[in-house]
Structures are given as structure tokens and as C-alpha cells.
Design a protein that fits this description.
Structural class: alpha/beta
CATH class of the largest domain: Alpha Beta
Largest sheet: 10 strands, mixed
Helix content: 40-55%
Length: 368
């Protein structure tokens, strides 16, 4: 939680309490020797708005004097594969920040996003969809974390044409990957004081595949008695999201459903341009805009330089926490929240007409 949210809670409690609240005691963070050394991060600028928003992050990190430095690479979605030197950089640095990569529709070019997840075994995708203070939305009290299995399911890429006009596409669900993502979801909920985990499925139709996913979630849930566990069919889930999103806390999903649920939740909470996310595995992590809808942007937005950098800025704050620089993450999140709350500087998707650079300048001005 950012210091702004903590302060807001403190002020709220003071307003209703007859006695002044006790002074907050700061927690001393004692890093191990070497933990504070500047860290190298691989930076992929990507397509469309990618160069604009990654440049925004670079400017803010420089203004903060954050203890990281970027190794920048040009990668584009129409490439056959991610260049070897880029993969070597990510494997060496173990952390990557990337802009959106355009995935061609149809044809023979595979998604580089999927290639990154597979080769680095980034098995967990995490998207945090929440109301930003001062940004009006149809629903309040939305704070949903969508945790999506990232390596199999319909994204397995096992497709072939059986005979002309007949294509077979295989959905692969394994016990190993289902248990792994369920464990991650419950560990996340436990460590972040979340109260409920909801498994999203279609086991009423895909009885074996999604049935195996549910079976794995139930087994893991039994090890966490303090966390409420429930299940919901994916079509009902989408309906419930747009009508009563506040009922959801942590959601764990197979691959394809997670993509749909995360984008729906992001739209409810304020738009895909404001929701952070990341992809993590045992050894590596790639941080990017949380929800993928329109993640490379329209050409007009690129030409006018009015791309919204908020999602990637908040994703970079997640990255700073991952690198064990929590105070820098707090500063960045607080600055972004102040800019959104003030409402004077916003891009078109958030109801304003500001440029990317104007948002960056406002965030830098609000760094304390």
C-alpha cells in the first residue's frame, strides 16, 4: 500500500476518533550487503505507444535517482522470434520492463509475448485492477488481483489443419501447472492479507481439462483454511464483474479466461491504460501494462504523443518492489496517485487531453 493510501486511512480514523491516533512507528528496513546496489533491467520499448511509455518510465526513474539502469533493446511484434541477445540480457538481469508488442492476427507469425513467457517459464501473470483516487468509474471499492496461468491452455500453440477447411486446436491443462498457479495465488493472498480466492473455470463443459484445474485449486485451498475459497463459471464471472465487481478479491484462472477477465476488470476499474501487471516465474520477471486490450495504441495517439503512461509507471513500481526497493516504489505510486487525484493532467482515455510528456512532468513534480 502506498504512503498516500496509508495517510488517507490515518486521516479517516482521526476524523472519527475522540482521541488523537498514536504516532506511526516506522519500520527499519535492513538490506543485506549488496541489496542496494544499482540493478540492471532489460528494457524492450515495443511497438506503437511502447517507445513513448517506456521513455516516460526512464525519465521518472532518472528523476527519482532510482537504483536501476536500463539495457534498451528494439524488439517488434513482426519478428520471427525474440533476438538471442535480448533473451541473454533478460536471463542475465532476471528482470525486464517492456512496452506492448503487436501480435499479427492470423498468418504464420507467432506471438513474441507467448515466446517470452514460455522460454523464461513466466508461469504467473498478475494484473491488479483497482479504483484510482479521483478517477470516476461506475463502480467503487474495486480492488481485484487476477492471477492467470501463463504457459499452457489454449495458448499452447498446438494447431494444425486436419483437412482443408478443418482446423484442430488443442487446449492443454496439466496437473503440474494447475497446482503451481494455484499455489502462487494462495501464497499471494496470504502474504498480502487478502481474504478470498476465486477460481474461474468452465468445468461444466470442459469436464476433464477445467475439471483438473479445479481439482488442483481445491487441493491447494485446503492448505489455507484462513482464506475463503470459491469457484465461478467464466460466463457468470463476466456478468458478475460488470454488475458487482466489489465481491471479487484474488482470482485464479487458466490462461485464456485470465486474459478475458483481466481486461474486463481493468475496464471496470478505470481502463487498461491505468492498470499495472507483471509476469513472474521462479527465476525471471517481465513487467508490462497489465491489461492487453489496445496495448500498442492507435496510430493517432502515437502521432499526437498522447499515450497514457500510468499503467507502465505503476508496473515499474511493482518492478521496484520485486527488486527490493520498496521506498522508491512508494514514492512513484504516491506521485502517480496525486496526479490522477488532482485531475488537471490526464490523457484522453482518463477524461483529459494531456500529452504523455505532460503526465511525466506532473508525476516528476509530485515526487517527494
Amino acid at each position: 500500500m502506498s504512503r498516500l493510501r496509508a495517510l488517507r486511512r490515518l486521516v479517516s480514523s482521526a476524523a472519527v476518533s475522540p482521541t488523537p491516533p498514536p504516532l506511526a512507528r516506522s519500520v527499519t528496513y535492513m538490506p543485506r550487503p549488496g541489496d542496494g546496489a544499482p540493478r540492471a533491467v532489460t528494457l524492450i520499448s515495443g511497438d506503437g505507444i511502447g517507445p513513448l511509455v517506456t521513455d516516460a518510465v526512464e525519465q521518472v526513474m532518472s528523476a527519482m535517482h532510482a537504483p536501476i539502469y536500463f539495457e534498451r533493446y528494439e524488439v517488434h511484434g513482426d519478428m520471427n522470434r525474440v533476438p538471442d541477445e535480448v533473451m541473454e540480457s533478460i536471463k542475465k538481469n532476471k528482470v525486464c520492463l517492456k512496452g506492448g508488442l503487436r501480435t499479427p492476427v492470423g498468418g504464420g507469425v507467432s506471438s513474441l509475448n507467448v515466446q517470452l513467457r514460455r522460454e523464461l517459464d513466466l508461469y504467473a501473470s498478475l494484473v491488479n485492477c483497482f479504483n484510482l483516487p479521483g478517477l470516476p468509474t461506475r463502480h467503487e471499492d474495486v480492488d481485484i488481483v487476477v492471477i492467470r496461468e501463463n504457459t499452457e491452455g489454449e495458448y499452447s500453440g498446438l494447431e494444425h489443419e486436419v483437412v482443408p477447411g478443418v482446423v484442430e486446436s488443442l487446449k492443454v491443462i496439466t496437473k503440474f501447472c494447475s497446482e503451481r498457479i494455484a499455489n502462487y495465488a494462495f501464497e499471494y493472498a496470504y502474504l498480502n492479507n487478502r481474504k478470498k480466492v476465486t477460481a474461474v473455470h468452465k468445468a461444466n463443459i470442459m469436464k476433464l481439462a477445467d475439471g483438473l484445474f479445479l481439482e488442483s485449486c481445491r487441493e491447494v485451498a485446503s492448505k489455507y483454511p484462513s482464506i475463503k475459497y470459491n469457484e465461478i463459471i467464466v460466463d457468470n464471472c463476466c456478468m458478475q464483474l460488470v454488475s458487482k465487481p466489489e465481491q471479487f478479491d484474488v482470482m485464479v484462472t487458466p490462461n485464456l479466461y485470465g486474459n478475458l477477465v483481466a481486461n474486463t476488470a481493468a475496464g471496470i476499474a478505470g481502463g487498461t491504460g491505468a492498470m499495472p501487471g507483471g509476469n513472474v516465474g521462479a527465476d525471471h520477471a517481465v513487467f508490462e501494462q497489465g491489461a492487453s486490450a489496445g496495448n500498442v495504441g492507435k496510430e493517432s495517439i502515437v502521432e499526437q504523443k498522447k499515450a497514457n503512461p500510468v499503467a507502465l509507471l505503476l508496473s515499474s513500481a511493482m518492478m521496484l518492489r520485486h527488486l527490493q526497493f520498496p521506498s522508491f516504489a512508494d514514492r512513484l505510486e504516491t506521485a502517480v496517485e496525486c496526479v490522477i487525484s488532482e485531475g488537471r493532467v490526464r490523457t484522453k482515455d482518463l477524461g483529459g487531453d494531456s500529452t504523455t510528456q505532460e503526465v511525466v512532468d506532473a508525476v516528476i513534480a509530485n515526487l517527494d
